[in-house]
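Purpose: get a first structural picture of the assembly so the mutagenesis plan has something to point at.
Setup: two entries, given in the order below. No constraints added.
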Amino acid sequence: MSQEGNNLDMELEGQRVYLCLLARKHLDRRLWRLIDPSDVVQKTLGDAHRKWEECRGQSEGQRRAWLRRVLLNDLKDAIRKYGRIAAHEQPIPEAVDQSSAWIEASFAAQQSSPSQQVIKHEELQRLADALARLPEAERETVTLHHLFDWTQAEIAAHLGRTRPAVAGLLCRGLKKLRKFLEQSGVSHV
Amino acid sequence: MSSDNMPTESYPASEPADRLDAILADYLQQLEEGCPPNRELLVERHPELAEELREFFADRDLMRAQANRLRYIVPKFLGDYQLLEELGTGTFGIVVKAQHVQTGHLAAIKLLRGEQWSSKDYVKRFRIEAQKAAKLDHPHLVPVYHLGEVEGQPYYVMKLIEGGSLTAPLRACTLQERATRRHQRWAAELVVKIAQAVHYAHQHAVIHRDLKPGNILLDTEGQPHITDFGLAKQLEEGELLLELSEAGRVSSQREHFIWEGGPEADTILTEKGLIAGTAPYMSPEQGAGQDATIASDVYSLGVILYEMLAGQVPIRGATPQETMRLIQHQSPPLPRSLNSRIDHRLEKICLKCLDKDSQKRYGSALGLARSLERWLGNEPIIDPPDGFAERCRLWCRRNPVVAGLGTTAALLLLVVMVMTVGYLAREAGRREEILEGNIYAAQGVADRFLLQLQKLSGAVEKTVAELEFLDLLEGEDKPGLRKFFKRIHAHYDDPRHGIARAEKDPPFESWYCLNYRGNILALTGGDAIRQAALMKAPNYQGRDYFHGALRRARKKGREAVHISRIYEATTDGLFRFGISAPVYKGEKVVGVVVATVITDRTMGLDRLHDNRRKAVLYGPKDSNSPRERVSRLSPPSEFVILVHPAYHRGIDAVTFPAGKPPSARPLPDVEALHQPDPQQAFTPEEAGIKDYVDPVGARDAEFEGRWLAGFAPVGNTELVVIVQQHYDDSIAPGRGIIWSGAAVLLGVLFIVAIGWFVLQAFPRPRG
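Result (structure tokens, whole complex):
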């Protein structure tokens, strides 16, 4: 039983970067300061641990889809909760609406689940696995710059570094990432 | 180099890693500002970091491609379309692969961006232009399905062409590949299709304004499709073009769709940030601030063709602005100076498009397409026109079989002609040589005949001088005379008595003795029937041998002997001639002695003929009647061949059918019978006859045909010698080669003819 629990922890831990990426993708970046995506992921992993019985014996793809549903539900809850709490703070209604719409769209896509979408999630998973092997700062730089189109200056402010330092992180991160992706056998363009 | 978008000069010369970071930071900064630096220039400026920079660019492109694929992991929609993945960043914005929600139909959506969309006026103008472009329907134009607007930014949906733009294959092409004819054909074929599509658009009053490899998409089959038709800004007259760094800033953060980077490198923007074109592909007049025309698009097509052939654009400066300035004034390097294997005719077509004077370019894109098609079909180009030699060469290339066969046939004909002329000349020389030899031989043979006649004459002269004979004649003792001549005949038949001869036959056929009236007193030789016949009609005063001898009555010795004309004997019809001499009693002629010589093969002469050369003796014919005397001064009516290799003794001799041989002897001087007179010899024309026909040929097949004959008179007699040789002997042995050559020639001509007809019947598909 304890052995199984360890395995489950490891498996769920392996999904953390992937889930973080997904959480950020579903939240407008103006909300990130208010709803920390990594907090949501932390909650999702806890929920998943508890409800793990639901997806016992299913394939990896099915387990991942289930995990996504848990995440989407948690995101929805987080936004709803934010709406209640942040009524007196500066509301960013369009960002909230936008994020909600994205979550709904993802739910809808989850139902139909076209094969293209499945392939894309597999690709994202592989990319997340490669990113997980990078040092924290490099992972953050590469992720924000390439997947979320942050400018250099924004990343520099976010990490508290200079612009050249960010460029260096990006350069080194990309170099390593490419190596890791090659190791995991991703075909290149 | 002090331009704002090149702040890289001031990097501290610290650690290379720090410098790299600084350079990359600047690079990213400029990208974010919307003026992407030229990567190649960057690498050139920092050679010590070249490897790292290239690696970074490769890693970055890989990551961007990955990120583009995953951009819409959270489903996003635009109108009826779900966005699937980002295909790339174009001049005007981003291109996204999308799927129609209801039909599942795949399409490409171009999202336009930039600050210009805040201007309602511009959006209106864009819509008009885009609607015009959307109506175009051509297989090589990317069809536009739908025009839309989202959050004030226009977008349009077009057919999805999967395969990428022409830029990538153009860059991937190596110098070696570009040197091949196949590559040039590929380039020409592609530009033909593009030019045709551009022409179609021109016909519908749509000018592209920004033709470049990036706007030419290749589908999976390699067929070109032009995109972004009519989307570039229509310039107002004299509108200024500003530095890139001050224009085209893209503040992408607040936008719904986020794209990285700025417009493509080399893009020229107007002061309002509108796209005016792409520097290296812009015509000089566009660069001067004038609006684009049909000729401008032709110029851009020329640049594309140039780039495909030479591997680089004709003119490029360090910055887009410098490029535009250079295009105004500088002539591009000749494509062949960059790739010497480019066909010079293709180069001419290309340079015609690039003329600075728009009037001197092709009048339409179709003109360019037609010229390229003619080049592809190996047909002479009309514009710019090919020279005559070029057109001949092209005809040969289009009709290689006919040209090859024709050339072969002509060469063969020439060889055969030269050989024929050579052989004919050799033959003519050989014929001349043989003829001269025969004339010379005829003179020798004539001398031998003369000697023989002299010997025979000597025998007659001696006989006449015999005392016994005179007594017998006086007494008209016929039996005594007969006995006497029998003895004489037997005497000269004996080779010991001086008349050497080759054959066993006696030198004289017969001996007669005639009295002064011409009656035969005695005769010997010949057969009994003839003897009897001769005795029956005893008077022969008409014969040349009789009165010829009488004419000699005043002469002495050898000069008294007469060589008669050739007569046909009444008795047996055979031809003979007589050697006669008068017999005197004192001063009075009492009779004539005649010794006859009959037809023969050699007339007793040794080795008269050889394998090739045949000796013939002929002379004039006497009157037909033995009684009628014919004047010696009158020309003979007929000539008879007396000695001939086809004869044997006592054969019926052959006369010349036309009465006269080719060379007739002039009447001899009767006073100098035996003296050979060189003055009397034949002229060169008479002495040598090249196509002599031997009358004996009518009887004997061996003597048929043409002969090379030399003629020579025998002393001062009327007899003539021919030495003749077959004409065919003169034919050079190489004649066989000529005939076989001619046969081969005929064969080749036949094949040429067949090949020609086949080509006529099955015309090759053109173009």
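The first helix of chain B runs from residue 16 to 33.
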